[in-house]
């Protein structure tokens, strides 16, 4: 059988210049790789969580913008060929901006999405400026600059996660029991994951960790994705329902909690998958260190605190029927279904980035 770890979560299919992802909604039952080219397909894949997890969304958006730009350039070139004018950079840029804003509207909480789109936008503007200054109306150098920026963002994600792993590993001992919530694993990044990066490195070094995965209601990322990828890697994994974390902590099985983040405010408040705040509160009650692992691209200095983070609301059907063979809630019942919650910085022992282990009061500008 194929191992999920042999696949890239997000990649550029160079042959037909498309965005290639694993459709995560089908895991763990089926590994299906899909190629996307249109803005609608890419938006839909992000919104429907075919590709999900903050860093993976960022990489998908970056590669997605390159893929879309190839098609925009084609349309502008076709128009130029049929008329007397040369390649219309103005039109290209207007369409680029429109599609960038469209992709940015797919999910509001993970800041990596707008971060990656802004990186692509900056590179696009610089390349267009250069092209216009040369007086050569050729879109190819602009497309090449966008391609290499998207691949840089992808490669940087791998290196960053590995460094998060090294930094996080300093906080774990051999034989430890480690709890995680949602999927901040390889499937949420390009490789290693964020919260799982220390676990992958510990596994390489034979630490013999005991990993516990919260199921993560309502979309079951912990059960479907984390338990799946970590057990595929040969780790000792135990799955539990979200409401079992308290009794597990009380039993003494857990030495540390590692989770990811979708946006970290300047004061250290961290938005992550719904339920994370509850796990952090329990960890504090049982004196268990609670660590948030994320790349610096998840830190949003323009958001002062967690109250300023926009929390995505998801469809009611995810709670009432999506995972059941028949509906499990009365028709028409009101449903509360926020995708994320914000863990107050007072509940977080430390935030681990590629730069080091940050502790309160947070100053993310400093190397640790
Ligand atoms: O709704 P999802 O599945 O995109 O939520 C994912 C999470 O909350 C992850 O923990 C977070 O994005 C960090 S991923 C390294």
Question: What's the arrangement of secondary structure elements?
Answer:
Blueprint: E1 10-13, E2 18-22, E3 33-36, H1 39-47, H2 54-82, H3 89-104, H4 111-134, H5 140-169, E4 177-180, H6 197-204, E5 210-214, H7 221-232, E6 236-240, H8 245-250, E7 256-259, E8 263-265, E9 270-273, H9 276-285, E10 290-293, E11 299-300, H10 317-320, E12 340-343, E13 350-353, E14 356-358
Parallel strand pairs: 4-5, 4-7, 5-6, 7-10, 8-11, 10-13
Antiparallel strand pairs: 1-2, 2-3, 8-9, 9-12, 13-14
Helix pairs in contact: 2-3, 2-4, 2-5, 3-4, 4-5, 5-6
CATH fold name of the largest domain, please?
A: Rossmann fold
Shape verdict = globular
Number of domains: 2
Provide the list of bound ligands, each named once: 5-S-methyl-1-O-phosphono-5-thio-D-ribulose
What is the helix content?
A: 40-55%
Per CATH, the superfamily of the largest domain is Translation initiation factor eif-2b, domain 2
Identify the CATH architecture of the largest domain.
3-Layer(aba) Sandwich
Main sheet: strand order: 6-5-4-7-10-13-14
Major β-sheet annotation: 7 strands, mixed
* Secondary-structure-derived class: alpha/beta
* Number of beta-strand segments: 14
N- and C-termini, Cα separation: 42 Å
């Amino acid at each position: 059988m194929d191992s999920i770890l042999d696949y890239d979560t997000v990649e550029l299919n160079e042959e037909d210049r498309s965005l290639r992802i694993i459709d995560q909604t089908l895991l763990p039952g089926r590994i299906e790789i899909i190629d996307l080219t249109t803005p609608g397909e890419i938006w839909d894949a992000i919104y429907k969580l075919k590709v999900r997890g903050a860093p993976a969304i960022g990489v998908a958006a970056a590669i997605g913008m390159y893929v879309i730009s190839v098609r925009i350039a084609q349309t502008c070139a076709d128009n130029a060929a049929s008329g007397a004018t040369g390649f219309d950079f103005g039109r290209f840029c207007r369409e680029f901006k429109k599609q960038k804003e469209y992709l940015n509207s797919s999910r509001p909480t993970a800041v990596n999405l707008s971060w990656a789109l802004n990186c692509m936008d900056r590179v696009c503007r610089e390349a267009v400026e250069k092209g216009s200054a040369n007086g050569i109306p050729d879109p190819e150098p602009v497309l090449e600059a966008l391609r290499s920026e998207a691949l840089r963002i992808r490669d940087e994600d791998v290196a960053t996660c590995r460094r998060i792993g090294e930094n996080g590993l300093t906080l774990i001992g051999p034989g430890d029991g480690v709890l995680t919530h949602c999927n901040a694993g390889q499937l949420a990044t390009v490789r290693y994951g964020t919260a799982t990066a220390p676990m992958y490195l510990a596994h390489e070094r034979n630490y013999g960790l005991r990993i516990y995965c919260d199921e993560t209601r309502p979309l079951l990322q912990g059960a479907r994705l984390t338990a799946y990828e970590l057990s595929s890697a040969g780790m000792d994994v135990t799955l539990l329902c979200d409401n079992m974390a308290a009794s597990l902590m009380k039993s003494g099985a857990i030495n540390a909690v590692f989770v990811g983040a979708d946006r970290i405010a300047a004061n250290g408040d961290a938005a992550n998958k719904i339920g994370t705040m509850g796990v952090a509160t329990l960890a504090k009650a049982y004196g268990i260190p609670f660590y948030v692992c994320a790349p610096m691209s998840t830190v949003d200095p323009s958001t002062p605190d967690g109250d300023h983070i926009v929390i995505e609301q998801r469809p009611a059907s995810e709670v009432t029927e999506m995972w059941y063979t028949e509906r499990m809630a009365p028709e028409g019942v009101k449903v509360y279904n926020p995708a994320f919650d914000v863990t107050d910085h007072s509940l977080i022992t430390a935030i681990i980035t590629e730069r080091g282990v940050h502790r309160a009061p947070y100053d993310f500008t400093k190397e640790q």
